[in-house]
From TrEMBL:
Protein name: dITP/XTP pyrophosphatase
SUPFAM superfamilies xrefs: ITPase-like
EC identifiers of the protein: 3.6.1.66
Catalytic residues in the record: 69 (proton acceptor)
Keywords assigned: Hydrolase, Magnesium, Metal-binding, Nucleotide metabolism, Nucleotide-binding
UniProt-annotated binding residues for Mg(2+): 40, 69
Organism annotation: Frateuria aurantia (strain ATCC 33424 / DSM 6220 / KCTC 2777 / LMG 1558 / NBRC 3245 / NCIMB 13370)
Cellular component GO terms, alphabetical: cytosol
Cofactor: Mg(2+)
Role according to the record: Pyrophosphatase that catalyzes the hydrolysis of nucleoside triphosphates to their monophosphate derivatives, with a high preference for the non-canonical purine nucleotides XTP (xanthosine triphosphate), dITP (deoxyinosine triphosphate) and ITP. Seems to function as a house-cleaning enzyme that removes non-canonical purine nucleotides from the nucleotide pool, thus preventing their incorporation into DNA/RNA and avoiding chromosomal lesions.
Amino acid sequence: MQRIILASSNAGKLAEFNRLFADAGIEVLPQSAFDIPDAEETGLSFVENALLKARHASRLAGLPALADDSGLCVNALNGAPGLYSARYAGTHGDAAANNRRLLAELDAESDRSAFFICLLVLVRHPEDPAPLIAEGRWQGRILNKAEGLQGFGYDPLFLPEGQTCSAAALAPEVKNQLSHRGQALRRLRRQWIDDVA
Ligand SMILES: O=P(O)(O)OP(=O)(O)OP(=O)(O)OC[C@H]1O[C@@H](n2cnc3c(O)ncnc32)[C@H](O)[C@@H]1O
Ligand SMILES: [Mg+2]
């Protein structure tokens, strides 16, 4: 069976990927299994950061690596929190504080439209000059208060277009069908299949 490293330390993403890869016949190992520390995310775009994370994990594990760089872009905030979604309120990964800041920033704002974006990069080796790259976007709007207990990050404040409840109130398999991450992974897998065919 093919083995790849998932170059992420985010438990919410890892749970979603495990479900998305359940039928793929690929063994997907989190970077924690190799004690790989987080890469420095110094890029100016999601795709640059995803490349940095994938190359870093592939180098340290000696295996192909898949990285996800993602975030929430709010139109009235000129795309913020954007690249800084994981540390919007200052501390990396403090979802409650990030959600509080988002609500405060949008306090009197009537345009609450937003989208999640996910860039996936797969490198077959650390210097891979032709990585596979796929993107997904999920449109929606920011609610006035948190709702739902599933998912992670900004899910409790995100009302997906066409839905009547937040992303955190959707069953995990429904979120994967609709989400930026689900879309990007399905696109990546099509490239992957074409690539080996
Ligand atoms: O870099 P890794 O280790 O993968 O983990 P991370 O949490 O730092 O991940 P990112 O740098 O890609 O930042 C993405 C942030 O965007 C938010 N985010 C991304 N996808 C999301 C989703 O599906 N639902 C809710 N929030 C999401 C959440 O705050 C994430 O921490
Ligand atoms: Mg990160």
